[in-house]
Design a protein that fits this description.
about 160 residues; alpha+beta; Peptide Methionine Sulfoxide Reductase, Chain A; six-stranded mixed β-sheet; two-stranded antiparallel sheet
Length: about 160
């Protein structure tokens, strides 16, 4: 199994979308890309930890490619809005790909370049691509949040 880590706004909806993909074994929401040890949701929402809300995806590369996960990532959010997705504003909602190895880094950079050149987005893509650091699993009540409540998205 391989891991992939993505930030695309509020992690509830991102987790639900990735969990529905064939070949995804498990998902967990949490925080990554910051400088504060053991951040909590309240700390991250305060905007002072540097962490993004992320989804860590465990996947079977024989069933779903990393490139397919990247494609899903680009379709889940607007990667042209800096530190914002919909009504959620702050660095914790930034668009980010945290790669786990050089192959993922190369694929993420190539995918970003392809998406920028495709014309799908009218503005420049601002997605951060950086090495995956420590993943801090979010509090249990955030895990599978929308699924537990029978909701299809964050806004109803």
């Amino acid at each position: 199994m391989n891991k992939a880590t993505f930030g695309a706004g509020c992690f509830w909806g991102v987790e639900l979308a990735f969990s529905r993909l064939d070949g995804v074994i498990s998902t967990a929401v949490g925080y990554s890309g910051g400088h504060t040890p053991r951040p909590t949701y309240e700390h991250v929402c305060g905007g002072q930890t540097g962490h993004a809300e992320v989804v860590e995806v465990e996947f079977d590369p024989a069933r779903v490619s990393y490139e397919s996960l990247l494609e899903a990532f680009w379709n889940l959010h607007d990667p042209t809005t800096l530190n914002r997705q919909g009504p959620d504003i702050g660095t914790q909602y930034r668009s980010a790909i945290f790669f786990h190895d050089p192959a993922q880094e190369a694929a993420a950079r190539a995918s970003r370049e392809h998406m920028q050149a495709s014309g799908k987005f009218k503005r420049d893509i601002v997605t951060e691509i950086s090495a995956a650091g420590e993943f801090f699993r979010a509090e249990e009540y955030h895990q599978k949040y929308l699924e537990k409540r029978g909701l299809g998205n964050c806004h109803g």
